[in-house]
TrEMBL record:
Gene3D superfamilies: P-loop containing nucleotide triphosphate hydrolases. This is ABC transporter ATP-binding protein. It comes from the Bacteria. GO terms for molecular function: ATP binding. The lineage of its organism: Bacteria, Bacillati, Actinomycetota, Actinomycetes, Streptosporangiales. PANTHER family: D,D-DIPEPTIDE TRANSPORT ATP-BINDING PROTEIN DDPF-RELATED, TRANSPORT ATP-BINDING PROTEIN. Keywords: ATP-binding, Nucleotide-binding, Transport. Residues 12-252 form the ABC transporter domain.
């Protein structure tokens, strides 16, 4: 899948009868990505940066404002009717909330069997057999075919969602924070299940999550998003070893570290200010109001997502002044924060 300059804006309207558009939320604002066959692409970023909106655009659940999404040579943004229905067989989605993504009034067998009914693949006893096979594949008891979602735990409900996504044997699955609502022990079970299914079925994943350790464990490549844009993209090893974008460096510095000695030595990069509003994003580089390395150029010139000198060919960074190897960004950000919080003393009277 190739994502080329994708924008998704949500209009804000005012009025009762004649509604007038007064502003727009820039949820996704010019994203370029490539998802390769058989890999797991992790997508990380703060809440509200556009990860889930991007996921829904990739799955053709949201129409894009402009740009192209090309899947196996076909422009997904122009599909409709039978073409869109065929696309659904190849690209499926696992939603974040295992409680809200399942209809509480329907039995589990009916929920998992919906893809077979919609696409006219199997019916009757054959459909029931396939649904029970899927339930067994994801670690559920096939005998619980007639139970309602309320009779399952959170982890089991997420397994139901995974089984539904696998029903049509898709080529790609978009996982929108599939473990964020689960306990840690259940998270490990679901993550390992997804990895086993990928090895067995040759699946491609787009894996969205807030937990940076989970993303590192499951991903081959990672894309970092900030305020609707991808600011850095690299292999998992390269990004975690040496992030080049100041925001990516700050984000990774906030990740939890299991080793207490290493955690004590680690220096966290504390950013100043708040995330700008996606309704009125800043000019130039979106990150410049909070960046410890920002200069005048950053306020007017939007940096392209390209390979910077000294980086690998697939390590892309959108920054005019990327973090250099061995640079201590934590001390720079601490110095800026100290200056910005020092009180202004009154001038001495003569």
């Amino acid at each position: 899948m190739s994502v080329e300059g994708v924008f998704k804006h949500f209009p804000i309207r005012q009025g009762i009868v004649f509604k007038k558009e007064i502003a727009r939320v820039h949820a996704v604002d010019g994203v370029d990505l490539t998802v390769r066959r058989g890999e797991t692409l992790g997508v990380v970023g703060e809440s509200g940066c556009g990860k889930s909106t991007l996921a829904r655009c990739l799955a053709a659940l949201h129409p894009v404002t402009r740009g192209r999404i090309v899947f196996e040579g076909q422009d997904v943004t122009k599909l409709s009717g039978a073409g869109l229905k065929a696309f659904r067989r190849d690209v499926q989605m696992i939603f974040q909330d295992p409680y809200g993504s399942l209809n509480p009034r329907r039995r589990v067998g009916s929920i998992i069997g919906d893809p077979f009914a919609i696409h006219g693949i199997a019916g009757g006893a054959e459909r029931k057999r396939r649904v029970q096979e899927l339930m067994e594949l994801v670690g559920l008891n096939p005998e619980h075919f007639n139970r309602f979602p309320a009779e399952f735990s959170g982890g089991q409900r997420q397994r139901i969602g995974i089984a539904r996504a696998l029903a049509l044997r898709p080529k790609m699955i978009i996982c929108d924070e599939p473990v964020s609502a689960l306990d840690v022990s259940i998270q490990a079970q679901v993550i390992n299940l997804l990895k086993d299914l990928q090895d067995e079925m040759g699946l491609t994943y787009v894996f969205i999550a807030h937990d940076l350790s989970v993303v590192r464990y499951v991903s081959d490549r990672v894309a970092v998003m900030y305020l609707g844009r991808v600011v850095e993209s690299a292999t998992e090893d390269e990004l975690y070893a040496g992030p080049r974008h100041p925001y990516a460096a700050a984000l990774l510095s906030a990740a939890s570290i299991a080793d207490p000695d290493e955690a004590e030595r680690a220096e966290r990069i504390v950013l100043s200010g708040d995330v700008p509003s996606p309704i009125d994003p800043p000019s130039g580089c979106r990150f410049h109001p909070r960046c410890p390395k920002a200069r005048d150029r950053c306020t007017v010139d939007d940096p392209p997502l390209i390979v910077r000198p000294g980086d690998a060919p697939d390590h892309l960074t959108a920054c005019h002044f990327p973090v250099e190897r061995g640079e201590n960004l934590a001390r720079e950000s601490a110095a800026i924060a100290q200056v910005s919080t020092e009180p202004d003393l009154p001038e001495a009277s003569t």
